[in-house]
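Deliverable D4.2, example record:
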Amino acid sequence: MTQRIEQPGVRPLATAGPGRPVRLHVFTGVVVFVALGAALAGFLIPGRPVLADPLSAPGAAGLAAGLAAAGQFARLRFRLGRGTVSVSWAEAAFILGYALAPPGWLPAATLVGTAGAWFLISWLGEHRPRIEILHLAASLTLGATGATLVTTAIAGSPAGPTSLRLQIGLAAGALTYLAITLGLAVTTLRLHQDQPTGRLVARVLHAKLPMLAGNVLVGLLGLFALVHEPWWLLAGPPACWLLRRTYRYHLREADERRTWQAFAAATAALAGKDEEAVADAGLRGALDVFGARRVELEVIRADGSRHSYAEDGPGPLVDASGLAGPVITRSMIVQGDPVGELTVWFADPTLPVTREELAVSAFGDALAGALRDSAARRQVAELSTRAFHDARHDALTGLLNRTALLAAGDRLLRSVDRDRHVALLLLDLDNFREVNGTLGNRAGDDVLRTVAERIVDLTRDHEIVARLGDDEFAVLVPNVVALADSGALRDGPAPLPQALRRAREMVDQLAAPMEVAGVRLVVESSVGVAVNRAGGSDTAELTRRAALALADAKRQRQGVATYDSTHDASNTDHLALLAELRDALAVRDQIVLALQPAVDLATSAPTGVEALTRWQHPRRGLVPPGEFIRAIEDSELVAPFTRYVLDLSLAAARDWTAQGFDLPVSVNVSARSLLDPTFPAQVADLLRRHRMPAGRLVLEITESVAISEQEIVDEVLGSLREMGVQLSVDDFGTGYSSFSILTRVPVEELKIDRSFVDEMIESPVAAAVIKASVELGERLGVRVVAEGIETVEQRTALIEMGCTFAQGYHFCKPMPAGRIVSALRQLSGTATTARIVPFRADDAV
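Output generated by the structure prediction step:
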């Protein structure tokens, strides 16, 4: 904890803020003027001193002035709001002065005595401004004047010193004295600060009434002693000292009770608010608790920034002489972390600071805790808001996500006319994986952000844009109006022309060139369009239909396609197919192998066997590989299916190895399998189970591997190579990626795509590709296998080009695993005679 205290008198008037209100100065001037008049007019009051006149009138008046001055020196002070009130022995001084001096001289004596006392008090260190001293002296003079008139009127003149009428008159005069000075003090405080009059009167009376009773008692006892036994006056000072201590305790107890009540109310007002509300409550509470003229609060936020708040009470920071009360600054710290700084400007220049230091420190601790709590609540609220936002928005583009689209879309559909046509446009980027594979994920993210911005720019009011995942976006159009020439569609399911025009416009705009990572790109897209009446479907159904349309657009390579209800059945079949595939992998009698040997072109001797898969469905019959392989690669079945096929293939290889044929088995591997870092470990486990050397397994890689995540794929392929597994590039020559893979991973085999073999007799270009591939294989030291050989003419041409290995129906059709050993024996037998005789097995399939 750090505190800084500035003592009174250090703040100059030039920086003190606004001066006293004009009305306060006017009121003070009126009081002083009236008091001067009362002091002069007092000489007209008839009467002589109550006691025998041992002194001259001026001497007695001087003694009365001395009593008035002594009553002020022995005063007690207490804080009232942002000001202070002095409680003095003025009534006792009045009673004794009335007994010693002529009544007409008392107003002037009071004016001279109190003014002199306050000037001396100011000179000794309290630094009271002259205008305030004149105001105090004038107020007491008016009180003495009123008290003199009331006492004289009741007691009569002359009055006996022991008469009951005199004692009643003196008591009534003391009450009058109190009433006048109280009224003037309350009026002054009311002009000085904004507090209710009733509250001010109640608090002054609470402090003054006990001392008034003591004042009257001391005055009357002093009068009694003067009349009967002057030596009893020696007991007056100790008695007055005891009474003063009692009064001080009473005032201090009341002031502390008020302070802590205000403290409790102020700290209670700090709870459960944000920073601005806590600061405002803290400033107002400090003004009330400390009776301060100004409070400043500097808050240090969690990010290190600082924010200042300030609140001024009524009245200036300094008095008319340019002096101010003490300034206490308290650094607020919670658990070692700085929270801020609290500065309080006190109103009273004579205020002792010891107790106020403790109070400011305690209030600062409470305020610091409230500020820390408000910061914690703000952070929780921000986290909650951010979590709610993140749960509904895509982190990369800021668009709504799928969940938010469905919720917002359904609300929108419920808010429009049920017969209004709505459309959902589902957009997907074509070949987006190539961007990630070639330029990296960061560039891919830049492309997605740019695409999102372009889509948003193309949308209109009340349309909803969302990113559903990866490179897929959706636009919900809540108002699709049929074009003028589409009247024939009014009775149909939906007015499509406008939605199609919007979709084509989107495709065209997204195809505009963009620059990413220093490369100028053109990103093409496909859009599926689904249109329906707002009351006819929800957003989820529209999205499903748009997805079917998008699949048509991508399959037909036409950019934009609309929903066709006939596709629903095929989509249902697709889902059922995946479920049935899962069952087929469990029973192990539906997914079977069809094995096809690869041979030496010159001798027809077998050089290896490729494992192909077939699905013998119990209800559908033989399902072509093209129908179920694609479904597997787009699902989570790809990993178990690959392990299943590898297991069957290695089991078949073990069987023909046991029959003396040391030939490898080739298995096609999906690109998704090579994105699995655990794939090499799975292969190693299968090789151990079947006790097969790694070199007997050839994994055929399709060209799609090259556009996948290169780092992961290369790591997986490298691990397989280290194990001894052979690698083959399938469909070689059909794309740039085949050549790309050769520069990254060493392979043992290239398989020329059958499309070149089919055309090489008629097409010199196809023949040139094969020739170049053979020469490349020779330079790299790898096998080159031509696929799809069906005629002797093709075989002869390949031999002339230098190709040594081949595979195709000319030699052997794919056959069940149970027939492969006999086929290998027959091929080996024909090879011994070096005859070019194709094998025709009766049981080939």
